[in-house]
Design goal:
- It contains twelve helices and 13 strands.
- Helix 7 packs across helix 9.
- Helix content is 38%, strand content 14%.
- The protein is globular, with a radius of gyration of 25 Å.
- The chain has two domains: 41 residues; 307 residues, Spore Coat Polysaccharide Biosynthesis Protein SpsA, Chain A, CATH 3.90.550.
- The protein has a seven-stranded mixed β-sheet, sandwiched between helices. The protein has a four-stranded mixed β-sheet with strand order 5-13-11-12. Strands 7-8 form a two-stranded antiparallel sheet.
Length: 359
């Protein structure tokens, strides 16, 4: 008896079966073609997705898209060739940049988290190609209020985007140090920087960069990711560099503004273990992060994103860190109230997808 006849019997397709040998062959070929289509033609459908179901931010205008694509990232350390080499060595051309954004906030600020979730999920929906590039998390210390304990628990179950640190809530008493240290430990595994299975070589880290951001900062995620693609993947420090003139914080050594700054993964791991950060983390958190790196001779690849990162200007006079809105913006800071958020979102066309009939 042939092997095909044996197969028919195992499948209950003997004599009298309504499914003939030719039908079975067509079914097998069809299933094989479907598998080939799904796993080869559309492999990204099976990638583990981030916090978002889609990608990243909307440029406010067509001109903004061109500006983001054409604008190089500025390496203020002068190591452009080193940055290019580091990027090439860290990832293959087909790999995209991966960023974890930790938005520091307070347990009680439900309204602000709801606003930010809405903003970033809409950006993600409009650019799904960047779904795997950005993870956004909300970061606070131990929840002590009985009311917050219940409501935050529901929020965490529903959204899965909250990181609770083991610390007393604070701004400049070590919260940022605890954040970087916690992230370094949490993702230092086989899906982070552990050994690759079977190859004997280390797997790439889960994230290329970890960004600390304030909850009054509006990030345009597509512009952020596009600028980071041109940056080094090691020993990199990215943000709005301060002091930007002799009138502000001068002569304090340079650091990146706390509105939102990113460290490459190797620097995040260094912060988690370094004596400099462990023994001295009480002080203005953005200044102190720069202080650690400066004292240790770290972060030789520094990227000052002025004028694309800035504070909201409003009626205040312009300065090197306070500007009017611009199409190629990466981040706007000091959005302290709903009116400022509405003005900012209106400029960047955040509600462009809304049909007039909806109002």
């Amino acid at each position: 008896m042939s092997s095909s006849s044996s197969l028919y019997k195992q499948l209950g397709l003997g004599a009298g079966s309504p499914v003939s040998a030719s039908h079975l062959l067509l079914l097998v070929l069809g299933a094989g073609f479907l598998a080939l289509t799904v796993f080869v033609v559309h492999p990204n459908e099976f990638r583990i997705q981030s916090f978002f179901s889609g990608g990243c931010g909307r440029p406010g205008t067509d001109a903004a898209t061109a500006a983001v694509a054409a604008s190089p990232v500025k390496n203020v350390s002068g190591g452009a060739s080193d940055a290019a080499a580091a990027t090439t060595a860290a990832r293959s051309p087909d790999d995209d940049v991966r960023v974890l954004i930790g938005i520091q906030t307070l347990p009680s600020k439900y309204e602000r988290r709801n606003l930010l979730r809405t903003i970033y999920s809409l950006q993600a929906r409009e650019q799904p190609s960047l779904a795997g590039s950005v993870d956004v998390r909300f970061v606070f210390c131990n929840v002590t209020s009985p009311v917050d304990a219940v409501l935050v628990s529901l929020e965490a179950i529903r959204h899965g985007d909250i990181i609770v640190l083991d610390c007393a809530e604070n701004m400049d008493n070590g919260k940022t140090y605890t954040f970087f240290s916690t992230v370094a430990r949490a993702f230092n595994s086989s899906d982070g920087s552990g050994s690759g299975s079977g190859s004997g070589s280390p797997a790439p880290p889960r994230y290329d960069y970890v960004m600390k951001a304030d909850d009054d900062t509006y990030l345009r995620l597509a512009a952020l990711v596009e600028s980071l693609r041109g940056a080094a993947r090691r020993d990199a420090y990215y943000g709005l560099q301060m002091p930007c003139d002799r009138e502000n914080f001068y002569p304090f050594p340079p650091f990146m503004s706390g509105m939102g700054y990113a460290l490459s993964w190797d620097l995040v791991q260094w912060v988690a273990t370094a004596e400099e950060s462990r023994r001295d983390h009480v002080g203005p958190e953005d200044m102190w992060t720069g202080r650690w790196l400066n004292l240790a001779g770290k972060a030789k690849n520094r990227y000052d994103m002025s004028p694309r990162m800035y504070n909201y200007r409003g009626a205040s006079p312009p300065s090197c860190f306070r500007r009017d809105f611009a199409p190629d913006t990466i981040a706007v800071h000091m959005l302290k109230d709903a009116a400022r958020w509405a003005e900012t979102l209106r400029y960047f066309n955040a509600t462009a997808a809304l049909r007039p009939s909806h109002l």
